[in-house]
Amino acid sequence: MSFAEAASCFLDPAAFTAPDKDYTGRFILIGLSQQLRVLFVVSAEIRERIRIITARKGHEGPAQGLRAWPVRAKPIFPATI
């Protein structure tokens, strides 16, 4: 993806932004780019300018592993009526 696409996530009004708990002064943004892709962008404000540290395409990540777990045929505990 291009720098311009990563920068376009800052225009998403529904983007999620939070401070990076591992690095002070950095922020994590998860937003929709103008190309309609979910991006994970790490940025920092340096001398009143926003610097993009890294940007990656969003993916399902750990949720994929959860789908591979076996589905129980019966509830663990019997339902009480």
Q: What does it look like?
A:
With 81 residues, the protein is α+β, with helices and mostly antiparallel strands. It has one domain (3-59). It contains two helices and four strands. It has a four-stranded antiparallel β-sheet with strand order 1-2-3-4. A hairpin with a 6-residue loop joins strand 1 and strand 2 (26-32). The longest helix has 6 residues, at 3-8. The relative contact order is 0.18. The model is unreliable at 68-81 (pLDDT under 50).
What's the SSE blueprint?
Layout: H1 3-8, E1 16-19, E2 26-32, E3 38-46, E4 49-57, H2 62-67
Antiparallel strand pairs: 1-2, 2-3, 3-4
How would you write the strand order of the largest sheet?
1-2-3-4
Ranges where pLDDT stays below 50 over 5 or more residues in a row are 68-81
Strand content: 35-45%
Q: What is the residue-averaged pLDDT?
A: 80
Radius of gyration: 19 Å
Sum up the overall morphology in one term. globular
> What is the structural class?
alpha+beta
Query: What is the straight-line distance between the termini?
Result: 55 Å
Topology, number of strands: 4
- Helix amount, in percent? 10-25%
Structural domains: how many: 1
How many DSSP helices? 2
Major β-sheet profile = 4 strands, antiparallel
Order of helices and strands: HEEEEH
